[in-house]
């Protein structure tokens, strides 16, 4: 189930063809790089930085993306150098080739502190993303053991698709404006999809690089991981949507990490918040009559058939809703031993 953005506010309805760029604002280029997943592309932006281009996000670490970088530099980027690399968050579709690009061109890397450190953490490999504690985490919430094994294997392969990061970086901080070429951006940060995702807002021009926080057509994955099994990333995500609505005006040209630019930012934020409220209502109804596990919520929340990669995301997302509802007092745990189950408080429908 993927809510749709109000169609009227799409200023560039056609994405750039492979290998091309669209100038979405003066000196701001929108490029699309492929991904080997159901979500088959990631957006990368080039912003005029005086002596060359500041690049926002690096793409997935595969040979297709490496070859496309060569093509982009010679083609749409007109042979001008890259001045710096800004990475919005540590996920492999955005940070995958960051280390490769920085090493190749001697680029300074700009990230929020938390996203950089998470990137280093996932680069530590086996211990970070495999291990028995992951299997226990899945089993506790009702995923069968053999299935949990496969999800651990496949789902976390994804997190290791990162080229080694530079040892030093520049911190993107909310208090410090970022000058790129003649533009001054303020850094906004949002949690939920990733711990401390960076967004860049240029109020003077009505421009927002929103990363994966607000996108047309899809909702960003909001995940609970084994490392913080009782975290409430959905609560933090909803807080960040409220922050964006408060500080970024409706009509702002919003350039996201996936799909097309849009202007109906506030309308989209309202759709996203409503989408999560609907999902909470489904869980509340399902847990009204008898205690249920989080794994039992998956077929209720996701109607299409999920492969292993998608299942790891779907499970993490279902648990994000459950944990949020526990915090809100809409659900309570009825057993927290080997198998965790929850039931609805305040009657069916919850909220
Ligand atoms: Zn993404």
Structural class label: alpha/beta
Which CATH architecture of the largest domain is right? 4-Layer Sandwich
Strand content: 15-25%
Shape: globular
The helix/strand order is EEEEHEHHEHHHHEEEEEHEHHHEE
Unreliable residue runs: none
Number of domains: 2
Report the major sheet. Answer: 7 strands, mixed
Protein name: MBL fold metallo-hydrolase
Domain Metallo-beta-lactamase: 41-258
InterPro entries: B_lactamase-like_C, Metallo-B-lactamas, RibonucZ/Hydroxyglut_hydro, Sec-metab_biosynth-thioest, WH-like_DNA-bd_sf
Pfam family, one: Lactamase_B
Can you lay out the helices and strands and say which pair or pack?
Elements: E1 21-25, E2 28-34, E3 41-48, E4 53-56, H1 63-74, E5 82-86, H2 92-95, H3 98-105, E6 109-111, H4 113-123, H5 126-129, H6 132-140, H7 145-159, E7 170-171, E8 178-180, E9 183-190, E10 197-202, E11 207-211, H8 233-247, E12 253-256, H9 265-286, H10 298-301, H11 308-328, E13 331-336, E14 340-344
Parallel strand pairs: 4-5, 5-6, 6-7, 11-12
Antiparallel strand pairs: 1-2, 2-3, 3-4, 8-9, 9-10, 10-11, 13-14
The structure holds zinc ion.
The site of zinc ion has 7 residues, from helix 2.
Domain Metallo-beta-lactamase: 41-258
Organism: Ruixingdingia sedimenti
Protein name: MBL fold metallo-hydrolase
């Amino acid at each position: 189930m993927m809510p749709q953005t109000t169609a009227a506010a799409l200023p560039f309805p056609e994405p750039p063809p492979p290998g091309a760029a669209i100038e979405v604002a003066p000196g701001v280029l929108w490029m699309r790089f492929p991904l080997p997943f159901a979500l088959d592309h990631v957006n990368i932006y080039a912003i005029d930085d005086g002596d060359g281009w500041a690049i926002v996000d690096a793409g997935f670490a595969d040979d297709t993306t490496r070859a496309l970088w060569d093509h982009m530099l010679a083609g749409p980027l007109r042979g001008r150098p890259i001045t710096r690399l800004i990475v919005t968050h540590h996920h492999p579709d955005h940070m995958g080739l960051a280390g490769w690009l920085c090493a190749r061109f001697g680029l300074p890397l700009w990230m929020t502190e938390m996203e950089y450190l998470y990137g280093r953490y996932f680069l530590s490999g086996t211990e970070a993303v495999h291990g028995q504690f992951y299997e226990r985490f899945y089993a506790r919430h009702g995923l069968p053991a053999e299935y949990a094994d496969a999800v651990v294997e496949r789902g976390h392969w994804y997190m290791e698709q990162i080229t080694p990061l530079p040892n030093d970086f520049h911190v993107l901080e909310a208090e410090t404006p970022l000058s790129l070429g003649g533009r001054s951006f303020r850094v906004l940060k949002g949690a939920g999809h990733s711990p401390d995702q960076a967004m860049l807002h240029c109020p003077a021009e009505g421009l927002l690089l929103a990363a994966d926080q607000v996108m047309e057509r899809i909702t960003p994955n909001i995940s609970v991981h084994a490392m913080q099994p009782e975290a409430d990333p959905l609560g933090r995500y909803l807080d960040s949507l409220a922050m964006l609505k408060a500080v970024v005006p409706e009509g702002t040209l919003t350039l996201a990490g996936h799909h097309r630019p849009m202007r109906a930012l506030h309308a989209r934020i309202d759709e996203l918040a409503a989408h999560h409220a609907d999902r909470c209502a489904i869980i509340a109804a399902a847990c009204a009559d008898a205690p249920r596990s989080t794994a039992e919520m998956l077929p209720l929340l996701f109607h299409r058939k999920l492969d292993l990669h998608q299942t790891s995301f779907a499970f993490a997302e279902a648990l994000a809703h459950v944990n949020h509802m526990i915090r809100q007092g809409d659900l309570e745990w009825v057993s927290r031993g080997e198998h965790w189950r929850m039931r609805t408080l305040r009657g069916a429908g919850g909220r």
